[in-house]
From TrEMBL, chains A, B, C, D:
Organism: Oxyplasma meridianum
UniProt keyword annotations, A-Z: Amino-acid biosynthesis, Lyase, Metal-binding, Methionine biosynthesis, Zinc
HAMAP family named among the record's database cross-references: Salvage_MtnB
Lineage of source species: Archaea, Methanobacteriati, Thermoplasmatota, Thermoplasmata, Thermoplasmatales
GO biological process: L-methionine salvage from methylthioadenosine
Gene3D superfamilies with a match to the protein in the record: Class II aldolase/adducin N-terminal domain
Superkingdom of the organism of origin: Archaea
Keyword match Ion transport: no
Enzyme Commission code: 4.2.1.109
This protein's record includes keyword Lyase: yes
InterPro entries for the chain: Aldolase_II/adducin_N, Aldolase_II/adducin_N_sf, MethylthioRu-1-P_deHdtase_MtnB
GO molecular function terms noted in the UniProt entry: metal ion binding; methylthioribulose 1-phosphate dehydratase activity
GO cellular component, one term: cytoplasm
Name used for this protein in its record: Methylthioribulose 1-phosphate dehydratase
Length: 220, 220, 220, 220
């Protein structure tokens, strides 16, 4: 399915604008230690129908990329433009975008999300409640909110993992993020700006949770 | 009540000068992780009679604002100028300004204040004594000083919460700050500069307290 | 006792060169959280006979000063030049300079030195051994070195505290630093550069010590 | 053995390009606290036959050097060019380069590697498995990978220590790094870029390991 000329213009404009936000945010997140090595992936929808997604290329240091470090993929993960390798985790971004109608998906690798997601995998997730910072999540209006952050067992089989992610999101349509065990955080938003905010909010809450050893709260 | 022309000039001058201090400090505090997401609010009195307060707008990333991210409100929290939304927590700023005759109120969301304020809510506060850093608080001349930091249960009902804050401050007129449970720190000063210093001093002491697990000190 | 013209030139040259090193280092240390609020003092000898010391003024944010934030004092702590207030802790700088023949004294307030100096005051100090980083201390050639860091009880009586510091340094002429309980670290060097290195080395070792809960090592 | 003119050109080109990468990375690592004091050494092979290695000079603050802070040494650690002192640890760089056919060796001193390498020396190393970040290591394709990080007892006898390092690497040719107890991390790569990535990956995993107190995983 081809894009019309006007759609191509919009798509390109979105690539430049959302892409630059991704590049700038990646640089900040890298300096905070949330994207060390070549870890993490950030994406944004630049065209809805047909679906086109700008996503950071595989194997790059996300703190040092510019727009040429992004590629554009379609709904099946095929590369439409860009000369970088597509990450196998692009499938998870597509799953989140389709299931949650997200406009942007950010996947980060912080120390706290890595450590906690391994420790609490046996519980299937962690429950965070009673924090004002929760109000930074879309549609949350009170600190009395209980946020369930599912933890999914990590896997290199992206087909199966995508299906599991889709299934978990279908069971928990109210969540704002999930973790892969020993791997990190996925969160999203309508825009890159909202996805960035959700990363900051959830990473903050995970550090609070980890430092407080809030084991007794960990009951769904 | 209208401002005279001269008063308007002073008010505008104060807006520019105190406002810029707020913007600059917010940027530094954001990079330290004390204002993640869109959390926190910083304010300064720019006119005393009638009371006019410049305060950061609601729902903004405080690390990326300029002067246009501030609004000016009156003693009832009504917007006098600026095109951002007023935070519901503006009521708490007004309560502190009125009760403590503060010229500036800074509210930050650090990991340590969030974690400790939830853990020690049951004690009504934490007592910090024996630290030289206490001398960074206004009118404290010795490390032997005992600083009581009240913890107030968080609420979304700002009318009630303001009244509670006022009541606690009336009982403890000697305090330099308080925490809302699972929410963060409020502190203040005669100027934005003093409020900034108080944030650094109290945040430092909270981290020392948290790392030292100084449970046995926690008796008023 | 007056300075000759040539000596005045040297003294001024040293003020500018050592003073700038102090200002630059203070800015870096402040951003690392080692000089929050208005805490800490940094000094350097700019003339030996008669003794003239450039030292950061009292009550200033050490992360934001330039050369005008320094004052020059004599061996009795009297101000020779500069328009800032002299810190009462200048007496401790003078004591260290006289006793250890130091060219520069840096006093920092980190979370780790504050917390550990309070916890281990009862032991009179902490003993650090077995770390390669110890070789960053002047005249230490092996990680097998045992570094004793005395902890002295904090006091606001600077006359008594200076005498105690002098006495402890006379008993332990081999040390590279000491802590005041709940207060922070004093270290020094022949030059501001060496003092800066000693701060980094000791702060690093204190954090290692604190994180490792190396209680069993804490026997002199 | 002399270099031909063409080889000299290549060697100089590599010195400039790899040397600049070393200088830039050292500045970033220093700011992260991985090279405090004058600790750490970074090196890169700039000519293979005969072996020529650019390496940071001894006793320098690695966060503030430029190309003049590097020296070039031969396979025996003799200085070919540059006016800085050669570190005694250059022998370990040479041992790693020869045994692992590395193009670049980075040695860092972080708090976590220092603390963990002392705590777990008794076990001979630590085993890290189950983390996605492991895939940032060369030739690791799954988080199910088990990475053994040997810990070698620290020594000031570089001849013996080099021999021990060579022997350990021969026993464990699959490792990507090792630690010296109470001293820090050695890792390497085909290029300075890969060595930098390996530092970030291993330091990240050590912090996760340390925070998680993953004692039960510590069985080879």
């Amino acid at each position: 399915m081809e894009l019309e000329d006007n759609e191509k213009k919009d798509s390109l404009k979105n690539f430049r604008s959302f892409g630059q936000q991704i590049v700038d945010t990646a640089s900040v997140f890298y300096r905070r230690g949330w994207l060390f090595g070549t870890s993490g992936n950030l994406s944004a929808v630049i065209n809805e129908t047909p679906l086109q997604i700008a996503i950071t290329g595989s194997g790059l240091n996300k703190g040092k990329i510019d727009l040429s470090g992004l590629i554009v993929i379609d709904v099946n993960g095929n590369v439409i433009s860009g000369n970088k390798k597509v990450s196998s985790e692009a499938d998870l971004h597509i799953a989140v975008i389709r299931e949650m109608h997200a406009g942007s998906v950010f996947h980060t690798h912080s120390v706290w999300s890595t450590m906690l997601s391994k420790r609490y995998l046996k519980d299937g997730g962690i429950l965070i409640r009673g924090y004002e910072m929760l109000k930074g999540l879309n549609n949350v209006g009170t600190h009395e909110h209980s946020e369930w952050i599912p933890i999914i067992e990590n896997s290199q089989d992206m087909k199966t993992l995508s299906a599991t992610v889709t299934s978990i999101l279908r069971q928990h349509p109210e969540v704002h993020g999930f973790m892969l065990s020993g791997h990190g955080l996925y969160t999203w938003g309508k825009t890159p700006e909202e996805a960035e905010r959700h990363v900051e909010v959830i990473e903050f809450l995970l550090e609070v949770y980890g430092r407080g050893n809030a084991g007794t709260d960990n009951i769904p």
